[in-house]
Amino acid sequence: MESSSREITTNQQGVHEDLADIVNKYRRSEFKKPIAQHTKQTFDSVIDWLGSWQGDVIIDACCGVGESSIVLAQQNPNTKVIGIDKSAVRLDKYAHYKRQKDGDINNNVSVFQADLNDFWRLLAEHLKTAKWTVSKQCLFYPNPYPKKAQVQKRWHASPAFIALLGCSTNIEVRSNWLTYLHEFQQALSIYGVNSKIDQVSGVAITPFERKYTESGQSCWQLHTLADGEER
Questions:
Q1: Contacts of 207 (CB under 8 A, 6+ apart)
Q2: pLDDT value at position 160?
Q3: How far apart are the C-alpha atoms of 38 and 43, rounded to whole Å?
């Protein structure tokens, strides 16, 4: 049985009042932070793993233990799935979840340790000449940093957001903090990307989602919309 999980507590009421200004500031500026060598090495390992692949790729960002990466790979057998997380401790549990959920060896998924701030920039640049395409990006239960003063630690209010969108605008985000998704939706709209938000239903795909639902919390998902698709 999974342990219970506390609900999000925050001193912020609704969407952060400075969000639009923050997003626009980063939209007009260049992210000049040097890319860490360890993430560059990881990115090279990702390219080596993909090899001669010329099809679709799904990025499972903030993949944690990689359970969601395995689920995505099972749901999309003709697609390569790449899980990325900065925590070696969480990624060390990937083999356990793979044994549990993947009785047959599934060669279309792998997980890697990297800083997504740097990984997204490397990926966006590489995609300009790559023979494969990122068909979707997933961010399932990233750290919401719910304190009002932490807004710029959230992906949609970070300088990495423009690189994230440069990799693919087909995005799914899940969270148990609805405000996080409302903020993500507003940030997307500044870039002209439409989206909708619904309540999550069905079988849990991450340990976090499982704990939240077993604790009686609602979980929410944001999907970006293709041009002409109705909300």
A1: 2, 64, 65, 67
A2: 97
A3: 9
